[in-house]
Write a structure and sequence with these properties.
Blueprint: H1 6-20, H2 34-43, H3 47-57, H4 62-67, H5 76-86, H6 91-99, H7 103-106, H8 121-140, H9 152-156
């Protein structure tokens, strides 16, 4: 499960905004798919660099890359995935992002919006945006603000 933090939440929001505004999106391309777009934000690599890293490993799609992920291999794609893990993600987060399948996120959506398609721009934007909202709520949940009693005297003072 993703570790809520400001940098990850901001990267998710930037990713959703970029996809929504028309940045390159192609589900079959390792650098411009769901995970690829988020990887661009977290690693500052280009879509071409991400795609080249994936091809160099020769393992296939993101799911296969994540199944074979080895943090000590030194392979470019494993280093990239490692950087994403350092940002607060785990392999399951990325597998679910690629398929838009995290039930915790889907349950937060209106019932008519819960059947998302992984190769549709609007569905990806909705999923990533809701994920950011969920992580933000988790991050803020332990913060308790003091309760103030308000009276007319407080307002007039």
């Amino acid at each position: 499960m993703a570790r809520p933090n400001l940098d990850l939440i901001a990267a998710l929001r930037r990713t959703a905004r970029k996809i929504e505004k028309g940045s390159p999106y192609q589900w079959g391309h390792m650098g411009s798919c769901n995970c690829g777009n988020l990887a661009q934000e977290l690693t500052r690599l280009t879509k071409a660099e991400i795609h080249a890293h994936a091809l160099a490993n020769g393992r296939g799609d993101w799911n296969e890359q994540l199944n074979d992920y080895c943090p000590t291999s030194g392979l470019p794609m494993d280093l990239l995935i490692g950087e994403m893990m350092e940002a607060g993600l785990d392999p399951d987060d990325l597998k679910q992002l690629e398929r838009l399948s995290d039930v915790r996120i889907l349950q937060r959506l209106p019932p008519e919006k819960r059947y998302l398609r992984h190769n549709f721009r609007d569905d990806v934007v909705l999923y990533i945006s809701e994920w950011a909202n969920m992580l933000e709520e988790q991050l803020l949940a332990p913060i308790k603000l003091p309760h103030f009693e308000w009276s007319e005297q407080t307002v007039l003072a």
